[in-house]
Write a structure and sequence with these properties.
Keywords: FAD, Flavoprotein. The protein is an alpha/beta fold. It is built from 20 helices and 27 strands. It starts with a helix and ends with a helix. The strands form four sheets. Strands 1, 2, 3, 8, 9, 10, 11, 12, 18 and 19 form a ten-stranded mixed sheet that branches. The chain has an eight-stranded mixed sheet with strand order 6-5-14-15-16-13-17-20. Strands 22-21-25-24-23-26-27 form a seven-stranded mixed sheet, with helices on one face. The longest helix has about 35 residues.
């Protein structure tokens, strides 16, 4: 299926509303031992129950807590994962982390220097010939021109550790079943992370969601019912919540099967630090083909990804000793300190859930529970964290009585198209990665076709040992294309292949890491926003698979552009911030940005009146042109009285010829921008608003909060 077909297929799915099936307790109970007991607890109704304590669930719990919403987190595993998994944190996610009590700064302090991880290296072994390399970091990526923060390379388990610490600082407790702090009989009041609890059934009424959770203690399987107003499934690619509510995934299954090997070697880390530092190493030789991900060269932490072809191959073919031998063949020299920590098979999919919201807007899916991407481009965790960022303020608005339940439906309206696009982009990036081995004479589609013939064709009637021998023999013949005899400049075939390979790297047609245009430039076309009156909804843009630079935009649904600004005050020292910092990090608050003009002050007055009626916090930012003032102006206080929630700032240009704020936004200074609590633009007026300002702002707020849909 082509990329355009992939997106069109998902557009059709997005219009359908499949029936939601909530399985009763008995549906699940049959899976468990007869020796179970259901505990009756005196839990009060939790505002939010989050299932899954990975980065997405933990980030959502942080955001909700900062917005004043109590929540409890369930995790089926008894401990937090120590497996590296995701490791690339993109610009937009780092912007979210800037608002989480210094998390972005902590990541930047803890990660390796960028010159140690910016490259992808293609070679015959880690000590052998280099076939090519691609540096994915451009100088402008770290100049903070389009964003106040840069991308990062930081393993998922380390991020989880920081998020848990952050939650503990916010008053959360970590409760295990074995420890003295177990809460198996205690009422839940919010602020708990419960380890070793699995959600096994879900039931809904108009008032609440009831989750039955199972846990083992002292050899017995116990059950407990937990009631909440809202339940979030952030429980990963194999989401039990998604299965329990009967939501299917659509897309491409089984793109590739792999075995992942987590190992440590300080000797290898030291060698690569000195000789060829990088993030990913794609290794092709006559004995083995694999990708080594360098999670931390200084500590010597790596993950090997190697193709896996069951049932001819099984996990016994990847024992720790065999994996050590494979690693040595990929390294190209002896290492004495290889320590294999974990070996696990996994399957690469490209799928998106048919629905993100169900159960009368009471149950939502986030992160991998809602979408499963190929790892190419690092979209998985980043998209999930941005799901949480989109959802948190909407949940808080509903539970604080500011918005109706329809506000939660906009989560799916906004985030599902982004997930569909990112899935297609990830698939395209994965296909680009396959161009390198194909150029070397190792077309992965041929390997997969051979495997299919053995599995389902004439080979399926052969004994399993013979099937394995045939598969190994064919792959060995394929890898012979990588011999030094063929792959050198003096061999016409090898010279031609190497020239094509150089062209792929130079043209940016290999696996890419950064997508600034998609990372910062994604836009919600409908949802909790007011489109421009003259806005023609563009056709879905197809991903190119190439890096494209981000162009700032202030269209409704877009992320607010970043520009440095100085807070005006009567103090000698004035703080320089990003325009993104004008949006509150500790409460659900809208931001209206205006220029210091009479008509704009009048608009702000109207916005304050409407916001007060809707009981939604709103702040006004008066953005002064560069070099126009040096101290706080008394005019704003007088113009906005009696309202006091405003701030005067002045734009800080990078150079004299830099565009002004309003030019960057492609608007006139008579315009105005209303920004949501997630830093996306809810509404804007490109020029002066005419007519009844109060009525205009009432329409804007009612539309964004979802009241207009109730009246229509």
């Amino acid at each position: 299926m082509g990329v355009s077909g992939f997106i069109k297929g998902f557009k059709l799915l997005h219009r359908t509303k499949p029936r939601i099936r909530l399985h009763p307790y008995g549906y699940i109970q049959r899976r468990y031992f007869l020796d179970t007991k259901i505990l009756n607890s005196s839990d009060s109704l939790l505002p939010v129950l989050i299932v899954g304590a990975g980065p997405v669930g933990l980030v959502l719990s942080v955001l909700l807590t900062k917005f004043g919403i109590k929540c409890t987190v369930l995790e089926k595993n008894k401990g937090f994962s120590k497996y590296p998994q995701a490791h690339f944190i993109n610009n937009r996610t780092m912007e979210v982390f800037r608002k989480l009590d210094g998390l972005a700064e902590e990541i930047q302090r803890s990660q390796p220097p960028v010159d140690l991880w910016g490259k992808f290296i293609y070679c015959t072994s880690l000590t052998g010939s280099i076939l090519g390399s691609v540096d994915h970091m451009h100088p402008q990526d770290f100049e903070k021109i389009v964003s106040p923060v840069s991308v990062a390379h930081f393993s998922q388990y380390k991020l989880t550790r920081l998020l848990v610490k952050l939650l503990e600082n916010l008053g959360f407790g970590i409760h295990t079943l074995e420890g003295p702090d177990s809460l198996d009989h205690e009422p839940l009041r919010g602020g708990e992370i419960l380890m070793g609890y699995e959600c096994v059934s879900i039931d809904t009424t108009d008032e609440c969601v009831t989750a039955t959770v199972s846990f083992s203690k002292e050899g017995k399987l116990l059950m407990r019912k937990i009631q909440s107003k809202i339940l979030i499934g952030a429980d990963g690619a194999g989401s039990m919540v998604r299965k329990l509510v009967g939501i299917d995934l659509k897309g491409e299954k089984d793109l590739q099967k792999l075995v992942s090997v987590h190992f440590w070697s300080k000797d290898l880390g030291r060698y690569l630090l000195n000789e060829r530092p990088g993030m990913l190493f794609f290794i092709f030789n006559t004995e083995v083909i694999g990708v080594i991900v360098a999670h931390d060269l200084t500590q010597g932490e790596f993950v090997l990804q190697i193709p896996f072809y069951p049932p001819q191959q099984n996990l016994e073919d990847f024992s720790p000793e065999i994996c050590k031998k494979l690693i040595l063949k990929l390294v190209g020299q002896e290492l004495s300190d290889i320590d294999v920590i974990d070996i696990k098979p996994w399957v690469m999919h490209a799928e998106v859930a048919e629905r993100f919201v169900c159960g009368n807007n009471q149950i939502m899916l986030c992160g991998d529970a809602a979408h499963r991407f190929p790892p190419a481009g690092g979209f998985g965790m980043n998209t999930g964290i941005q799901d949480a960022h989109n959802l948190a303020w909407k949940i808080a608005s509903l539970l604080n009585g500011v918005a109706p339940t329809s506000i939660l439906a906009t989560y799916e309206t906004e985030r599902k198209p982004i997930a569909v696009f990112n899935t297609a982009l990830s698939v395209q990036n994965f296909r680009a990665a396959m161009a390198v081995p194909a150029t070397l004479g190792l077309d992965p589609t041929v390997a997969n076709s051979v495997h299919q013939v053995i599995n389902k064709g004439f080979g399926s009637i052969l004994p399993s040992s013979m099937q394995k021998a045939i598969l190994d023999g064919i792959f060995s013949i394929g890898r012979s294309q990588l011999s030094e005899f063929i792959l050198n400049e003096n061999n016409p075939l090898g010279s031609s292949r190497l020239a094509k390979l150089r062209h792929i790297f130079e043209e940016g047609k290999s696996l890419q890491l950064q997508f600034p245009a998609e990372d910062l430039g994604f836009r919600y076309l409908e949802g909790a926003l007011v489109p421009d009156s003259d806005d023609v909804v563009p056709a879905p843009e197809l991903p190119t698979g190439r890096r494209r630079d981000y162009v700032p935009c202030a269209d409704p649904g877009s992320r607010l552009p970043h520009m440095k600004a100085k807070v005006l005050s009567n103090f000698p020292s004035e703080e320089t911030i990003s325009t993104l910092d004008l949006v509150s990090e500790n409460k659900v608050e809208f931001l209206l940005i205006i220029a210091p003009m009479e008509e704009s002050y009048n608009l702000a007055q109207a916005a304050f009146k409407v916001a007060e009626e809707y009981k939604v916090s709103t702040k006004v930012c008066i953005l002064w042109p560069a070099d126009s003032v040096t101290r706080v102006q008394p005019g704003s206080k007088a113009k906005l009285a009696p309202w006091k929630n405003y701030i005067d700032v002045i734009e800080v240009k990078r150079s004299l010829d830099s565009s002004s704020w309003w030019s960057t936004c492609q608007m006139t200074e008579q315009g105005a921008i209303l920004v949501r609590p997630d830093e996306h633009i809810a509404w804007r007026s490109k020029s002066r608003v005419v007519g009844d300002l109060y009525s205009k702002m009432k329409i804007v707020f009612s539309t964004v909060l979802g009241f207009e849909s109730m009246n229509s």
